[in-house]
Amino acid sequence: MKKLRLSDLPADKPEKVTIELPSGVHRDLLAYAEVLSQESGRPVSDPSKLIVPMIQRFMATDREFARRRRLNAAGSSPTSE
């Protein structure tokens, strides 16, 4: 069986951000937490804590975002191409 893309939740000092999720996304988040709990053998007490690692994973695997971030770090404007 394939592993889920998320595993352990990092301990980090958070910044407070409030979001509203569409009900379908919230149901999927709860379902993901349930599957993760079954896979890891540990309960996910607060499924909202999965949101940050999901966003981190999304940004880490977005090639265009990475390219533009490199351009910005090099001092170039991503819109000047």
Main features:
81 residues, single chain, mainly alpha
Mean pLDDT: 86
Count of separate DSSP helical elements? 3
What would you report as the Rg, rounded to the nearest angstrom? 16 Å
Task: State the order of secondary-structure elements, H for helix, E for strand.
Answer: HHH
Helix fraction? 40-55%
Strand content: under 5%
How many β strands by DSSP? 0
Question: Which class of secondary structure composition applies to the elements?
Answer: mainly alpha
Shape: globular
Report how far the terminal alpha carbons are from each other.
43 Å
Poorly predicted runs are none
State the major sheet. Answer: none
Structure, described:
The structure is a single chain. The protein is an all-alpha fold. The protein is 48% helix and 0% strand.
Topology (SSEs and partners):
Blueprint: H1 23-40, H2 51-60, H3 63-73
Short structural description:
The protein is mostly helical and 81 residues long. The chain is built from three helices and no strands.
